[in-house]
Amino acid sequence: VRYGVEGAASKSNNGYFGGLVTAWNQRSALLYAGGNDKEVRVWDINTEMCIEEIPVASIGGINCISQDGVSGNIFATGNADGVVRVMDRRLKARTGVVANWREHSPYAVRNVFMRPGHTEVISAATNGDIKYWDLRHRSSVFTVVQTHSDNALTHMAVHENAPVTLTASADSAKIWNQRGNNIGVVTAAKNTYGSVASYMKSLAGYRAKAPAVQLTAIAMHTYLPVALIVSDDGRVSYIQPMKPNGGSGGGGVVASLAGARASSAL
After folding, report:
1. pTM of the prediction?
2. Residue 61 contacts residue 47 (beta carbons within 8 Å)
């Protein structure tokens, strides 16, 4: 059995990125896990036992999982066939599909996010499209088209308490609002950890200094307006909004830790 994490998964020919993907619910102490076997297994951390196996009809494997953040009964999967499915584990497996959206097809779904306590679901596909869904509707309510036109989208992180989304390809990361606007100005900065060598130069863009450096993971804080970006050269960059001289707002790298060698950001 090959284990991995979403940030370090390698793509296969059918759009499945390989490895193990998980979603954790703190309140219920449940861990959702999925992969290439097209099943979502629910683990009870208190008993350290798998309490449920839920089949997910998919051509290819499961690329990502998210859960509702409240009860832990409702979860969403993003699949290699471009389908976003929302399921309720309290219902029977064959009738437990709450929503079944196929607008991303034929592009593989890379990330999916359920906003805790809301009916909103956000998904991103490899072609760079971000789609906003509502459980009460059968189609998407809004789409941000081709957020990364230069390379395939590899990561998406959504702020749980702010209308901000962070996306990344192999060589760039961008911040978006829910109107589909690329927001903020991110600039290089010096700090106590050393110099950040021109990583962010364009509007809300994170540009690596050397083409060989690739972004491997991104994450956003649950409450604070900050983010982490990890690159394969072992650097972890900490980003928060800044107000440059004469500007109205923006963002910047305020710390950069070298030698981290991380493959995922939590």
Report:
1. 0.78
2. no
Handedness of CA 88, 89, 92, 93 (dihedral sign): positive
pLDDT digits (tens, 9 = 90+) for 225-248: 888 888 887 788 888 876 555 444
In the chain, which stretches have pLDDT less than 70?
Answer: 1-16, 18, 93-95, 184-212, 242-266
Beta-carbon-side half-sphere exposure of residue 102 (alpha carbons within 13 Å):
5
The length of the chain in residues reads 266
Q: Are strands 251-257 and 186-187 parallel, antiparallel or unpaired?
A: parallel
For 45-97, the pLDDT digits (tens) are 999 999 999 988 777 789 999 999 998 899 999 999 899 999 999 887 666 88
Which of 151, 173, 197, 180 lies closest to 251, judged by CA? 173
* DSSP codes, 108-172: PEEEEEE-TTSSEEEEEETTS-EEEEETT-SS-SEEE--S-SSS---EEEE-TTSSEEEEE-SS-
Burial 87-123 (b: 16+ CB within 10 A, else e): bbbeeebeebeebebebbbebbbbbbbbbbeeebbbb
